[in-house]
Amino acid sequence: MFLSPKEIKTETGQSLLYCPHRIQVSKEFTFDAAHHLFQYDGKCKSLHGHTYRLEIAVSGFLDQRGLTYDFGELKAIYQSQLEPKLDHRYLNESLPYMNTTAENLVYWIYKTVEAALPNERQIQMEHVRLYETPTSYAEFRREWDEE
Predict the structure, then answer these.
(1) Which is more confidently placed, 43 or 30?
(2) Does the keyword Metal-binding apply (predicted)?
(3) CATH numeric code, 22-145
């Protein structure tokens, strides 16, 4: 449950909290990977690679330090849960069986990060955006998971 600024005090009796509302924080990562697409009639049916850009966004209420979720903790989730399966990997072999489209990847990433989040201060996934090229991305949002 969220604690109001009046309920969290420092040694001096003052609160470090200012915002009583939910805040979203996000972190970006890049990784290089190869893949090919099944049932696709175009260049992408052949083995090829991308430098992907990944944005992960979560939201929640502030902790006693005034942080929603530490950027370092998001990085730790990326490094432990995602990077070993994504970076410099052949995605068709390193991920669960799927057609490795940006759409399928973004959903797998969303669910993987969601499972690693702590159950505190109503921390929740907001969205994952995955750029396959500098101008093309797929995105999955929390509200779509609730439909």
Answers:
(1) 30
(2) yes
(3) 3.30.479.10
